[in-house]
Amino acid sequence: MNLILLGAPGAGKGTQATKIADRYGIVHISTGDIFRANIKNGTEIGKLAKSYIDKGELVPDEVTCDIVKDRLTWADCTRGYLLDGFPRNLFQAQELDRFAEIDGVVNINIDHKLLLDRLCGRRVCRECGESYHVSTLGGKTVCARCGGELYQRADDNPETVASRLAVYNEQTAPLIDYYEKRGILLNVTGTEAPAEVLFEDVKAALDKLLA
Length: 211
Ligand code: ADP
Ligand code: ZN
Fold this sequence. Notes:
The chain is of the alpha/beta class. The chain has a domain at 2-111 and 184-210: P-loop containing nucleotide triphosphate hydrolases (Rossmann fold, 3-Layer(aba) Sandwich), CATH 3.40.50.300. 48% of the residues lie in helices and 16% in strands. It contains ten helices and eight strands. The strands form two sheets. It has a five-stranded parallel β-sheet, with helices on both faces. Strands 6-5-7 form a three-stranded antiparallel β-sheet. It binds adenosine-5'-diphosphate and zinc ion (ZN). Zinc ion binds next to loops.
C-alpha cells in the first residue's frame, strides 16, 4: 500500500503519519524530516534546503524529487510507504507518477483559523518527532513518549508560517483536485480534538481502501 498524506502545515500530518505507519506496517517518509536531518548534519543538500525553509518557501523541485525517487528504491519500501509532505505542487505530483504507483491519498481538511496558533505553539521532540502544543505542556520540556528534548522548529514563527500557508494555498491545495479526479482521494476532517479521534476516521478510510 503506497500512500500520500496531504494537509496544510499544522493540520497534524506528522502525528497521523506515525500512527498510519505503525498500524499498517509501512514506512513513513517525510521530506521535511529528510531536509532537517541534512541541515543538522551540515550536508550540501542541507545548506541549500535551509535557505528556502527559513523563508517558508519550497525547496527546488529537482532536488526534492531526486531525494524521493532515490528513497523509494530502498528495501524498506517494498511493503509500502507513506509520503508525508510530498508532493507539494503539481510538478512534483506529475514527477511522482513517473516513478511510483499511489493507491490512496489521505487528505486532512482543517479550519485554517486553527493553524497559525498550532504552528507557533508547536514543540517537537528531537528524538522521536512527536509534537506537542505549549498550552498543554505545563512548562515541561521533555517528551512524554520517550524523554527526548522538546524544541521549537526554526520555521514555526509567525512570518515563516504565513508564507508556508500561502504556499500551501497556491501550490499544494490544487493537488486535492488532482487526486480526487483520479478517484483515490480519502477525505478526513481535522479538529481540535486529540489526534486519536482523527485517527479513527483515517483508519476507517484506509480499511475501506484495503477491503
Ligand atoms: P509543514 O507541513 O509543517 O510545513 P514539513 O516538515 O513538511 O512541514 O516541511 C518543512 C519545510 O520543508 C517546508 O516549508 C519546505 O520549505 C520544505 N519541504 C518539505 N517538503 C517539501 C517538498 N515536497 N518540496 C519542497 N519543499 C519541501
Ligand atoms: Zn520523543
